[in-house]
């Protein structure tokens, strides 16, 4: 009885015999893909080096500072609500 490894070898031989015309094209296209992948990886490394050198990278988030909130007057104590401040006659009740 044939095992899995023998069946895999037989299948590989059948595929190689039937696809002998396409193997050079397959090798050529895989070589092109490898070159493209290598060039893209090199370009990404160059971009990351530029970002480390202090230059802005495209798509980098920019954050702006917001103005501080205006200072609020402290709330009066429970018993003083609605009454003017006796020490400061020009003040209004809150």
Automatic annotation (TrEMBL):
Membrane topology: Single-pass membrane protein
Biological source species: Streptomyces koyangensis
Keywords, ordered alphabetically: Membrane, Protein transport, Translocation, Transmembrane, Transmembrane helix, Transport
UniProt entry tagged with the keyword Repressor: no
Pfam family, one: TatA_B_E
Compositional bias per record (Basic and acidic residues), positions renumbered to this chain: 42-56
GO biological process terms on file: protein transport
Any one GO cellular component localisation term in the record: membrane
Superkingdom, taxonomy of origin: Bacteria
Name used for this protein in its record: Sec-independent protein secretion pathway component
Cellular compartments annotated: Membrane
Main location per the UniProt record: membrane
InterPro entries: TatA/B/E
Segments of this protein annotated with the region Disordered: 42-94
């Amino acid at each position: 009885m044939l095992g899995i490894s023998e069946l895999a070898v037989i299948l590989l031989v059948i595929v190689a015999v039937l696809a002998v015309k396409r193997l050079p094209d397959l090798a050529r296209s895989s070589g092109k893909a490898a070159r493209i992948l290598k060039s893209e990886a090199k370009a990404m490394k160059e971009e990351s080096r530029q970002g480390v050198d202090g230059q802005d990278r495209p798509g980098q988030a920019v954050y702006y500072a917001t103005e501080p909130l205006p200072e609020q007057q402290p709330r009066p104590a429970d018993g003083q609500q609605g009454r003017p401040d006796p020490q400061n006659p020009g003040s209004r009740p809150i």
